[in-house]
Amino acid sequence: MVLPVLGAAVAAAPALSASAREPYAGIVLRAALWLAFLAPFFYVTYGFANWLASQRDDVGSIVFAWERGIPFIAWTIVPYWSINLFYGLSLLLNDTKRGVDRLAGRYLTAQIIAVACFILFPLTATFMRPQTSGLPGFMFAVLGGFDKPFNQAPSLHIALLVIIWDHWRCRLKGLAAIVWHVWCFLIGASVLTTWQHHVIDIPTGALLGFFALWLFPRDGELPFAGFRLTADPKARRLALFYALVAALALAGAVAGAFVSALWLILLWPALALAIVAFAYVGAGAKVFQKAADGSVSLASRVLLLPYRLGARINVWAWTRKLPPHVAIADGVFLGRFPTAAEADAFGTVIDLAGELESPRGVTCRWTAVAMVDLLPPSQAAQTQAVAAIEAARGHGTVLVC
Q1: Using DSSP, how many helices (H) and how many strands (E) does the chain show?
Q2: 249-280: per-residue pLDDT in tens?
Q3: Which domain holds residue 55?
Q4: Residue 97 to residue 211: CA distance in whole angstroms
Q5: Of the candidates 167, 161, 162, 181, which has an alpha carbon nearest to the alpha carbon of residue 80?
Q6: CA distances from 5 to 18, 169, 286, 393 (A)
Q7: pTM reported for the whole predicted model
Q8: Which SS3 state, helix, strand or coil, does residue 34 take?
Q9: Residues with Cβ < 8 Å from 175, sequence gap 6 or more?
Q10: Other C-beta atoms within 10 Å of 27: how many?
């Protein structure tokens, strides 16, 4: 099943090199240099974390009782191992050096954070795999040569899978895309059916993968680029508030994990609120990764979902008894963040809410000038918003939200 995907990927390489503005040889060289660093870095750090855990006698595990019903399927070691191939190909089959660097940044982020967790909070797998033979037996033997039953949560395998899946999902089309999604599903499932990981390792690994995608986005600015600690007292208070709530959620996840692993779900809002605190302390609206059409990146949509749910509830609570919009000038209205139906009653929506994503199914013109809630916008943002409003007035009524 992997062959059609590989074929599509290899076939795409000439098209990339033909259309890229940079010589493909330079891109391959950059990728090779990154691989020359990342491969030994992985084996050294991953192996060290394994060795360190093996020296301890207090390494526990987080296992749900029903996991013992997960079958061992020997052949799934093939998709499990295939991620190593895609790891290298994803770097080599790129269209710009910038794309190579950002992908390598995602890899490095996932590896550093995962290994840090393995060292600080080591866990062990409790399954005893049966003997296997043939190709699966050989592959399990090679795997056992360097991978011990430690290094569990977050699953680095799943984190890298999220990164690599995202790298190719927009590049492959048609049948190749379908095969790619199916194969990635098999890779994800294989961490369980090879008895390499427990269930809790999967969502924690996915969260890490999406964080790496957010930290090094495919398009746009890096969220930490141009960071300057704010001098605005209000922004600092808001940053402190969100940081404290994030810390409380983190503490709840850690303390609750001793009662039930389900408490670890609090890691998700903890990370989301930490990102919002980062926005207020100086990073600004770019942490929301909102495009000019009101859409947000996949990583932003996933990571900030808990915060956005809270923001939606907050909007409803404050505006439910107010009119949806009021006129402030000829053909220009000021209102709450609209539903798709409310937005389509206007010619254009000028969206200033950096934290919210445009509603699905909207058909009117949508222009986003992302700003951070409760803070005065910069002069540049004000100028951009005014220009957008003036341009939109030529296309009918305008809603500013």
Answers
A1: 14, 5
A2: 999 999 998 888 999 999 999 999 999 999 99
A3: 2-215
A4: 22
A5: 161
A6: 20, 11, 34, 47
A7: 0.91
A8: helix
A9: 4
A10: 23
